[in-house]
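Here is one chain, start to finish.
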Amino acid sequence: MFDRIQHIGYLSADLDAAVAWFAKSFGAVHSGGGTLGKIYAVPSGGRNAYVRFGQVEAEIIEPEDKTGLSGDVLTLHHVGYIVTDIEKIQTKLIGRGFKFAADKPFTNVMGQQVLYFDATTTNGSMIHLTQLADQPDTTGVGSGVAIDNIVHAGYLVPDLDAAIAWYVEKLDGKHIGGGASRSGGRNAFVNFGNVQVELIEPEESRRPAASTHAMDHVGYVVADMHTCMGDCQNQGFKFVDGAPITNSIKQQVGYFDTATSMGSRMHLTQLPE
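Its structure:
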């Protein structure tokens, strides 16, 4: 159903500073953006920018209402999933009980068709479908740090078993593993379509409200973990651990120190062979 993760979206009180940070840290190229009207995902309106590095993209949004935001922190906001036929997928998902923020997709400044879910049907998570343009703009693709893909978005959940069951029932998910989480609590990995999600049930004091899935981190796929860690360190990143760890599904993972990633949790991932 979902082909791959298009991008992770962030909020920032200072769009220009965030774009400059991606350029300095990942070698990213500013590939487009503009003024945002008052849309579902950004009720106050504002402006945005798309940046690309390696084979991935990030969307940065500076809303008009900056309450609770900082120019020094990237706040996780949404995930965009690429689909081949957005209207066909919309119809299929409506049949499974999902609602959408609009009756039909809108076309963004990049020529992509975009349709946000109604977050009341996605556990409070901001998610959208994207159908790429027939001739996608490739500005910035292949630049900077060699990131191949986005392996997953990670969410904090109040009830791990219920969250797994939701992905299995609603999105034909397959629970492929999990166990103790490095940050405390326990986790699970669920594949659905060609994408993956990590679900984390933290210790009780850190759990989100009932029926809420709160964005926690993003994982970027690299071909050679040790080489890419070195490249990132040369760009000014630091890592929580001196060497990658191997998680329960045999992925090698290296978390950035958030003091060097604008306060946002990110990790590199080398997939098992």
